[in-house]
Amino acid sequence: MRLFLAVLLPDEVRAALAAEVQRLQRVARDVAWVAPDNLHVTLKFLGEVEPGRVEAVGAALGPVAKTTAAFDVEVLGLGAFPSPTRPRVVWAGLGAGAAPLAALAGRVDAALATAAFAPETRPFAGHVTLGRVREPQRAPRLAAALDAGASRRFGLVAVDRIALVRSDLSPRGARYTVLETWPLGPPPPGGESAL
To answer: What's 23's domain CATH number?
Structure first.
């Protein structure tokens, strides 16, 4: 099974991002856009996992979830990896709440390393993938559109659980299935979020 751990987005944030993708489609045709139902923030990509190891994922993540307070993160701005002028991945970024999300991703990574999953070699760069460029090349119109949306706000996400998601690839694109979720702990007293 091909698995990853994610923060799922609420309907209103996915709708706002889907509307943005429709605008971007006018200036970038050679992009495989992510279906609105598949938009999420990846905490850790696990890759191919034997079914018998799924229990180990839960055993590692349960304590992390229970001891991490829920918080909010803002989906904010547009960009691309490695750069807007030569994009490979088009994304929506994160604003307020990005630091607690990075800390959560670090705790998830450390916990899974104890369950024999390879630790990440690159620093966490939280984002929502909107599309992947099929043939990377200079794309000035797309770069201008991303620059124009650099401070666009797409809404708040309540980070109140970690989801284990299976990805099934097909010619029509990926289909995601949530296999399990682990709720985070309550927010600290007197505060509903990290914002």
So the answer is: 3.90.1140.10
In a domain? residue 6: yes
Express each pLDDT in 138-157 by its tens digit. Answer: 889 999 999 999 999 999 99
The domain total for the chain is: 1
Name the pTM for this structure.
0.91
* Catalytically active residues, by annotation: 40, 127
> Long-range contact list for 44-52, CB < 8 A, 24+ apart?
44/4, 44/5, 44/105, 44/108, 44/109, 44/112, 44/117, 44/120, 45/4, 46/3, 46/4, 46/5, 46/112, 46/117, 47/2, 47/3, 48/1, 48/2, 49/1, 49/2, 49/3, 50/1, 51/1
Q: Is residue 166 part of a domain?
A: yes
Confidence of residue 20 (pLDDT cuts 50, 70, 90): very high
